[in-house]
Specification:
This protein has 318 residues and is of the alpha/beta class. It is built from ten helices and 13 strands. 32% of the residues lie in helices and 24% in strands. The longest helix has 22 residues. It is globular and about 55 Å long. The structure holds acetyl coenzyme *A. Acetyl coenzyme *A binds next to helix 2, helix 6 and helix 7.
Amino acid sequence: SRFTQILGTGSALPAKVVTNQDLERQVDTSDTWIRERTGIRQRHIAADDETCVDLAERAAQAALAAAGVSAAELDLIVVATTTPDQTFPSSACLLQERLDSHGCPAFDIQAVCTGFIYALAVAEKFIRTGSAERALVVGAETLSRIIDWTDRGTSVLFGDGAGAVVIGAADEPGIISTHLHADGAYRELLQVPAGIGNGGNGSPYMQMKGNEVFRVAVTTLGAIVDETLAANNMTRADIDWLVPHQANLRIIKATARKLDLAMEQVVVTVGEHGNTSAASIPLAFDQAVRDGRIQRGQIVLMEAFGGGFTWGSALLRY
Ligand code: ACO
């Protein structure tokens, strides 16, 4: 049968770094509070003229180069983003034009912080069913543009960035399984109220009930880990690497404890990147592939939780 393998990875961060000390000068917060509650020390923030698709393009070019695949060989482009450059065309179409790729399907997926897992799951099904041979999957965000920078409850948590993978058909896995979930009943715990369809009604900035999100995230991520292992008759000992969504170091540590993994087996970027939403997993994955931590043949578990709520996982042999 037919499977899907990750052929190459790439990522991009804005050059501008905002430290906790910088934020101390803007809102009533402290470096100590931010580090102790979240593990975040700094975040990268897009320049005024730097867009989400700019970051997506840099990450995509790096992933294509690493995979040895040209843009002309792509037959699917999926971009996970909550912060598209325009209402339309989709970020995937804007990226397609930048890459000089023509004719293949291109679309965006919106699942906030779980966006990359959703996009990978969808693209993987295109390949496994024979609808595509090679796909580009990107998570790209400029969350800084939907943050109220006077709100200390949210402004200290988020950053901008992009990560990408090129995936292709293979004779063996590759991607072993993906698991997706959502429950819109939780919509009010984490949201940007204003949108196009509701006539811009409500705040255009992120609203979050942080401690309630935290509680549900820890429980739900524990459950998705169990679901993923059970679906594949695997135990915790089979996992070489955890590449979690990077929202909060305390949430990451709780999931690592659940898996009985030493923190050395967990890829952690939240300290340097903050929460980059759909970009955080492919950014962390690319970093650990490029620095040689994640090796070919190893078993990697990715998991994410975000607005919606949405949550999901991907289990793969790299
Ligand atoms: N600096 C200083 N104090 C702060 C700050 C800040 N930046 N933010 C909040 N506080 C205060 C609060 O006002 C509160 O003060 P009070 O006790 O006087 O009322 C106190 O700190 C404790 O607030 P809590 O919200 O209870 O703190 P908690 O330990 O829960 O940490 C945090 C807050 C970091 C937001 C945590 O709840 C969290 O990480 N939640 C998950 C958030 C998350 O992951 N969101 C993204 C999900 S992914 C996505 O889809 C975007």
